[in-house]
Amino acid sequence: MFGIQNIEFVNPELLLLLLLIPAIAAWFFIKKKDQHVSIKMSNLESIANTSTIRSTLRRYLPLLRALALAALVIALARPRQTLKEEDIKAEGIDICLVMDLSSSMLAQDFKPDRLEVSKRVASDFVSKREHDRIGLSVFSGEAFTQCPLTTDHRVVKEFLAGLRCGLLEDGTAIGMGLATAVNRLKESESKSKVVILLTDGVNNAGYIKPLTASEIAREFAVKVYTIGVGSTGDALTPVSRRSDGKYIFGLARVEIDEELLAEIATMTGGKYFRATSAESLERIYAEIDQLEKTEIEVTTLKRYSEEFHHFALWGLILLVIELFLRYTVFKTIP
After folding, report:
1. Contact 318/13 with Cβ under 8 angstroms?
2. How far, in Å, are 44, 139, 164, 266, 276 from residue 236 at the CA level?
3. Is the sign of the CA dihedral 184, 187, 189, 195 positive or negative?
4. Is residue 299 within 8 Å of 253, Cβ to Cβ?
5. Beta carbons within 8 Å of 105's beta carbon, 6+ residues apart
6. Which of 75, 155, 183, 231 could make a disulfide contact with 308, Cβ separation 3.0–4.6 Å?
7. Are 99 and 122 in contact (CB under 8 A)?
8. Whether pLDDT at 203 is above 60
9. How many Å apart are CA 33 and CA 296, to the nearest integer?
């Protein structure tokens, strides 16, 4: 069906002919006035109130012809509807998020705690990576894949939202977390494979050493960005756990093995970041987003739907109606 959206004219200069219509109308009005013959009558009562519906409607015949001419002029200008199609070829990046779920992630130096802030910021990051496959691995004293690589980012964000401490044996097995992520990425055919590893502690568990996992990552061309999350000094942190599973909080020293995290990043061509607040963590993910840009090739195709025939048809219909009425119903005798 014909619409007025995305309409353009191939010959827009012909639309200037529309200006001739009021000029022609004025010329016919003057000419018609000159053709009238004056008759002097002593009394006009005999011809008063002689107007009929037929004579009234006949006055509007020129309007039909004007509309017909306008439609034909528009048809000559050749209106057409532009239909755009975008063919997007995106070479996405495979990204695996690795999240620390040790009990120290419940420390309250971030509000409400480190884990909730980390989940929120990571979810915002996922939303920006429209064309990438993203997976999620978690670790504490052990590690496992929470979500395999997928382009369904809604699922990834649902898994992120459901993360909580206590799912695994407590501890900080950085090497296990990294190795789990690399295991997911090693078979990837993507030209760029990235791990974003977030932790707030010191490696103290697991049977795979962090540097061993880093060597494996380098072997499979996996770039690792490491993030140490936590303020400086002391923080209100879980120090023990009651029999009912609830954590007991107390002040504890913030300890992050920054030297290890920096070495992991350097070995794999990545970068180490330190987040001491929610705002700095947001800036870190924004920087990683800029560093790992997805290559996208966009080809725009244009298709056109010719619409001039609608105007030409209506112009002819109006012209035929006008001629038919002029020489039949509203015919006058000179």
Report:
1. no
2. 107, 22, 18, 31, 14
3. positive
4. no
5. 113, 114, 115, 118, 165, 200, 229
6. 75
7. yes
8. yes
9. 69
Q: Would you state the pLDDT for residue 106?
A: 95
The dihedral sign for the CA sequence 113, 115, 116, 122? positive
Q: Is pLDDT larger for residue 136 or for residue 1?
A: 136
What is the fold, at CATH topology level, of the domain defined by 93-293? Rossmann fold (3.40.50)
**pLDDT value of residue 53:** 67
- Pairing label, strands 79-91, 143-150: unpaired
pLDDT of residue 73: 85
Beta bridge partners of 252: 235
Give the pair of three-digit tokens for residue 250: 């107390």
Interior/surface letters 170-188, b for 16+ CB within 10 angstroms, e for the rest: bbbbbbbbbbbbbbbbeeb
Q: Where are the domains of the chain?
A: 7-34+50-84+303-326, 93-293
Give me the numbers of helices (H) and strands (E) for the chain, helices first please. 10, 11
pLDDT number for residue 301? 61
Token pair in block for residue 222:
């996996």
Helices (H), the chain: 20-35, 53-58, 61-76, 114-128, 153-161, 174-185, 210-219, 258-268, 278-291, 308-326
pLDDT at 207: 92
pLDDT of 300? 59
Q: Which two tokens stand for residue 126?
A: 């996922």
Looking at the predicted structure, is the pLDDT value of residue 108 above 50?
A: yes
Identify the CA nearest to 31 among candidates 64, 62, 67, 52.
Answer: 62
Count Cβ atoms below 10 Å from residue 324 Cβ, excluding itself.
Answer: 11
Using alpha carbons, list the distances in angstroms from residue 75 to 108, 142, 172.
Answer: 71, 73, 75
Contacts of 28 (CB under 8 A, 6+ apart): 62
pLDDT at residue 7, rounded to an integer: 76
